[in-house]
Amino acid sequence: MTATERSAEVLTAATAAFAESGYAATKTDDIARRAGVSQPYVIRLFGTKQQLFLAVLDQVCGRIEEIFRTGATLAEPDASPKDRLDTLGGHFGEHFLTERDLPRVFLQGIAAAADPAIGANIRDHFGRLYNLAKELTGATASEVRRFFGTGMLLIDLTALGVTELEADNPPWATEILENLGEDGI
Predict the structure, then answer these.
(1) Domain boundaries, the chain
(2) What are phi and psi of 150, to 5 degrees?
(3) In angstroms, rounded to a whole number, what is the distance separating the alpha carbons of residues 34 and 59?
């Protein structure tokens, strides 16, 4: 296996580990074990646990950007900004939210934002994604704020394991899920 392939395996293992245990509690030994490599090899590839986490965040946020760009191509050429946001949101829900570890890692990035390097990284990504949504849809700042607010709610629900209308959902979850379309995503 090439170093690039091994690096990709380590990133996949790290994504799962950080999604499961968070940044602070995840050990590079755990990631190495999941990837089937030694812990020194993980460090040789990425330097530190922080640098590995930043690489995972870059990959997760890159996936959101890819989903936004693809979603934007699905909107009708003459669609309104709101309809473009709705198309983007639908595509986001179908892809990012179904890749369970990605929303959890995104939230872990936000939770670890007190670390200066992680905070700078996640703020930069968040800002770029916000601006990209505005650029791709032509929506107003107010519309994009609402879109992101609803998107963050969906990320939270996904992290909580509440993604479908189920009979055993708590009433608050059913209420949120039944009324999502009213809020613009």
Answers:
(1) 55-183
(2) -70, -40
(3) 18
Q: 139 and 116 in contact (C-beta within 8 Å)? A: no
Sign of torsion, CA 122 128 12 19?
Answer: positive
**pTM higher than 0.70:** yes
Q: Distance between CA 127 and CA 117 in Å, rounded?
A: 15
- How many CA atoms within 13 Å lie on the side-chain side of 98? 8
* Cβ neighbourhood burial of 15 (10 Å; 0-12, 13-18, 19+): buried
d(CA 64, CA 135): 15
What sections of the chain are H helices per DSSP? Answer: 3-25, 28-35, 39-46, 49-74, 81-95, 101-111, 116-137, 141-160, 171-178
In tens, the pLDDT along 68-106 reads: 999 999 999 999 999 999 999 999 988 888 888 999 999
Concatenated DSSP letters of 15-55: HHHHHHHHHHH--HHHHHHHHTS-HHHHHHHHSSHHHHHHH
